[in-house]
Amino acid sequence: MPEKGIKKIPYEEILTLEEIQSIAESFVELGTDKIRITGGEPLVKRGILNLIEGIGKLDKVKDFAMTTNATLLYKYAEDLKKAGLKRVNISMDTLDRKKYGDITRRGDLQDVLKGIEAAKKAGLTPIKINVVLIKGFNEDEIESFVNLTRYEDIDVRFIELMPIGSLRYWSLNNYISNDIVLKKVEELQEVSASDISSPAKYYRLPEGKGKVGLINPISCKFCENCNRMRLTIDGKIKPCLHSNEEIDLKTPLRQGKNIKKIIETVILNKPKEHNLEDGNYISRDMMDIGG
Q: N or C end: fewer C-beta atoms under 10 angstroms in the chain?
């Protein structure tokens, strides 16, 4: 998080819960069967349970998940499950309490650990823990994260640091390839992917209960299998995370237009791949886009 906080935008520029629900329904009617609520941090959103309940009632949605920092998950896990959420992805870049407080500015790692336990108890599974690898910050914790999968049915996914927004040059200077995971934990064995569209390549410790995933958007692009569309909180569709192209859905939605035709066009024109080789980095920060 930025030391001085984030730039706030006027309330009227933000999608209402009803508008998010309407857009989700349009995507589902066009064949989408996987929805994930991201952030920022979705659990600080007023009325979030109402949105979860609304999307949870859509019969055609097979995989309904949330990405969260989990600091409030211990309060919400049971209610989220009852509302229809199926599983959670948890962003946790360190297992060290001090380092966690430093990188989040105010977060408490103990709350996250309580949230993980609450998610397991509520049945928000399979739980996936997302770890962004940062040179000089958490590369010494790789073995500890991998060991979480040894006795727990939890997937730990290492994600390469991406050059995005105002931190793009800082990210380039602190980038390390996911190859370091396989070098540090040589006993990891590759396993077959159950979902070809998943960005992760999965491995497992011998007799490990969970899996270790490597997501390599920089060192090994997975564009050919990418079927993701991102909806920003200000109503823009991003067909590719690493492109500045954004298509406005909020304005036509508020004008009463048929947004399904717009969505169809965006899907059919999704970029074949992203190109970062020439420094074509996007200007929006990740916290503005949604993970």
A: N
Give domain status of residue 252, yes or no.
no
pTM summary value: 0.90
- Overall domain count for the chain: 1
Pairing of strands 87-91, 63-68: parallel
**What domain range is 209 assigned to?**
126-220
Q: Confidence band (pLDDT; 50, 70, 90) for 220?
A: low
Residue 184 lies inside a defined structural domain of this protein: yes
Tell me the H-state helices in the chain: 17-29, 48-56, 73-83, 97-104, 109-122, 142-151, 168-173, 179-184, 250-254, 259-268, 286-289
Pairing of strands 34-37, 127-133: unpaired
Q: Are 193 and 202 a contacting pair, CB within 8 Å? A: yes
**Given 3-state DSSP classes, what are the helix, strand and coil percentages for the chain, each rounded to the nearest 5?**
40, 15, 45
pLDDT(194) > 70? no
User: What is the DSSP code (8-state) at residue 47?
Assistant: T
- Domain presence at residue 227: no
